[in-house]
Amino acid sequence: MTQPWIEGRFEENMVLTTIEQAINWARQSSIWPMTFGLACCAIEMMAAGASRYDMDRFGAGAFRASPRQADLMIVAGTVTYKMASRVRRLYNLMPDPKYVIAMGACTTGGGPYFKWGYHVVKGVDLVVPVDVYVPGCPPRPESLLEGLMRIQDKIVGQRIAKRVGATGKVNDELPVPHHSGYVSLPTDQSALVFDHQKVPS
Amino acid sequence: MRGPAFLEKIEAAFPGAVAGTHLEAIDPWVEVTAEKLLPVCRWLKESSDSRFDSLECITAVDWLEPDPKKAAKVTWQPHTEIVYHLWSTVSRVSLVLKVKLPRWKDDLPGSLPAVASVAGVWRTADWHEREVYDLSGIEFTGHPDLRRILCPEDWEGFPLRKDYQMPLEYHGIRAK
């Protein structure tokens, strides 16, 4: 294979798409998270950003030091009442469209501090609107990447077009829980060996 | 610090300062009256043979009045203890000091018990006493800057007290 793999492949070619798809593609491929870690989940978030798990594969490796440049807030770690106002402030500083991942048990619902943690916000969704919850204590980097892909699904489903004749905006497509987009299901379900490989219709 | 010889020296220097001892424990302690705490501490650091030049930590223990079901088994009277762990880098010995205070000053719930601050003796005590004030609600008289250190400034109550009530709401965030 002497031909170059990608160089020159797109020259003198034409690509047809819609604005909506192009914008959604660009947005979902460059989700810049905010550098923002509160507790032990942040260590796992760093691992997800480092070379072994490499969040940059999904275009989300550019951790921004400023909320003004960030699209995604990964709330990684225990949110205390003292911190909650700061979290909310950072969220308000982010430009639209913005997304929030609640990473870990503490941010999804208080976690181990639910009963006796006098200082812990019982879920960060009491402070900022959350798009994706990633459970785990802390979640593995794979889980965070999965959460990131669900954010991408949500972005792909955004509709900026207006239907002809309709007055309002077309509603966004809600992402279907579980895989959509890139994984094509095998057509022959009977060929699958294990039950968990089958996708219920 | 083991042995009664040391106790005798404290007793000689400050008659009536030692309110109780427990020398058989693995970590033996000496109880000092609240009034004599500051001079005893200064003496321990500057004049005693051992030179306790390092304050390792300050803690407070809350001994709550037990509920009626458990009262029969309980041997203590309700009180608050402050524990000082001292260490001498010169003679490499440690000492545990305790001060017993009422849970509330004059038994009025809400009025904090007070003890003299040792921040003038060991600089470390500044933040340690702020932490004890913040979490256990003990006032250190003569402290240079007695503010909350961990909780927000407008926090209500002292969370490590046994009768602490969890907040139901904080700045509009639901807590239950």
Brief digest:
The complex is a heterodimer of chains A (201) and B (176). Chain A is mainly alpha-helical.
List keywords for this structure.
heterodimer; A: 201 residues; mainly alpha; Rossmann fold; 3-stranded parallel β-sheet; 5 helices; 3 strands; globular; B: 176 residues; alpha/beta; Beta Polymerase, domain 2; 5-stranded mixed β-sheet; two-stranded parallel sheet
* Major sheet details of chain B: 5 strands, mixed
For the record, the CATH class of the domain at 32-156 in chain A is: Alpha Beta
Structure annotation, total helices of chain B: 3
According to CATH, the homologous superfamily of chain B is NADH:ubiquinone oxidoreductase Nqo5 subunit
Please explain how this structure is put together:
The complex is a heterodimer of chains A (201) and B (176). With 201 residues, chain A is mostly helical. In chain A, 27% of the residues lie in helices and 6% in strands. Chain A starts with 18 loop residues before the first helix and ends in a 45-residue tail after the last helix. With 176 residues, chain B is α/β, with parallel strands linked by helices. Chain B has a single domain (4-174), classed as NADH:ubiquinone oxidoreductase Nqo5 subunit (Beta Polymerase, domain 2). Chain B has helices at residues 4-13, 37-46, 125-136, and strands at residues 18-22, 29-32, 54-63, 79-87, 94-101, 114-116, 139-141, 169-170, 173-174. The longest helix of chain B is centred in the C-terminal third of the chain and has 12 residues, at 125-136. The chains are: A mainly alpha (201), B alpha/beta (176). At the A-B interface, helix 3 of A face strand 9 of B.
Annotate the secondary structure layout.
The complex is a heterodimer of chains A (201) and B (176).
Chain A: H1 19-28, H2 40-49, E1 72-76, H3 81-93, E2 99-103, H4 105-109, E3 132-134, H5 141-156
Chain B: H1 4-13, E1 18-22, E2 29-32, H2 37-46, E3 54-63, E4 79-87, E5 94-101, E6 114-116, H3 125-136, E7 139-141, E8 169-170, E9 173-174
Parallel strand pairs in B: 2-5, 6-7
Antiparallel strand pairs in B: 1-2, 3-4, 4-5, 8-9
